[in-house]
Amino acid sequence: MRKIKLIYILLLLMSSFSSCTKDELLNSSDVLKEVIVKDDSNKLRNNVEIQLKEPAAVQIEYWKSGSEGEALTTPFTEDGLNPVVKLILLEPDTVYDFRLTIKKEATLFHSQVFSFHTRSLPDNLSPFENQLPGSTFRFKGYISIATKPENSYLYMINDQGKIVWYQSADNKTIVNSTFDPVHNTFQCILGQNPNEQFGGDEILVIDLYGNIIFKRTYDELKNPDVHHDFRRLPNGDLITINRYKKAFDLSSKGGGTNEIVNGDGLTVMDLNGNIKWEWNCFSAINPLDYSFIMDEPQGGHLSPRQDLLHANSVSLDTDGNYLMTFNRINQLWKINSTTGEVIYKLGVDGDVDMPQEGYTSGIHSSHIDLDGEIMVIDNGKANQQTRALSFVVDEKAKTAVLKKDIKFPTELFTMNQGSAYMMDSQHILLGSTMSKTMAITDMSGNPVWQYQTDEKFFRAYYIDKIDLTKSPN
To answer: The pTM is what?
Structure first.
């Protein structure tokens, strides 16, 4: 194993705590014995192994050589003689510098600067190809996707299209992933559920260091048929979209007297898997109210009885209630997170008065954008043009105003799936699933940054800042 060994480092250290004055000098040999940088099994992670003469806590600042102003900072370890600090979000084939801060009681010791060289990426990772080589657009932070082949990976890339973080799904397909910036975790639906075409056989929460925070197989869940969305809530709980099945008498529509109809539900659970709240669509609708209920499957899609509404996203509104999109009926519902009451139905044949130009033809990825508006992606199946739309809804008056209508180029059309999120007040990140492309556009839909990969992905997320000093869980 390649390693860089730094033994018996002799340097002068300065304290920033009251036990030592600003100008008092301390020798590192009093606390620091040895520093070793070792390779992790993940090629964009390195482990710094530290040996101390007395128990203390250690923090590391690290940066690309020559870019100290962009340093990342780890949290302090627990007090110990042999702390190990994992460094992440590293570019491949790059020299990094780092400095230790050792906290012993009320004293901080700051070490000299050390260096190490990161490794090359594994050969089997996806490429990210620049589609606008003349672009000078730059941004801070990262863009994350999860590719969808049988051997999937989670990725984070920077504005140069360089992979700075990846995580294997261990030969499983990532059906969908989300990132939670509050807890710095990814939530993933993995594999293939034998009972659910759009779902996985496992749900998983991992942190940025690859540690598993939560894992359940579908047969360990009360509501096992999780599909399309799995998120972490600000309080740390988890929310899933799941299939909900119920028998109905459809004889008045030409069906049977005891036919199973597959609808959708929501389940909220804690990290121990304890269910805290449940909801299902049949508390708000009756399948008999849909004229298409007895239609047969078309174009490779399931029949309405097999997949009545096709829920595909859930998110929080500003008041803590849920926003949920339904692709078959092109509606967004707001659902009371306590009572389960459907507050409104926005969209085609909904109960909110809205302009028809705000109707969608394929709807995904509901969320509250940076302007506080409800944003969705309109796939644009009817006219082959994908859009980002945002709305302001007056719940009492049951009216909606279309605030943003951003049309993307035809080459970025995505018939299914996809996402659109504001990066800042002037730019949108489009995840075009079918073209395998991540594009940053201006507010008129013109691309200013665009990368394509070799595999489809459900959504593309912008992660503007990661604070590594907070608790990873």
So the answer is: 0.92
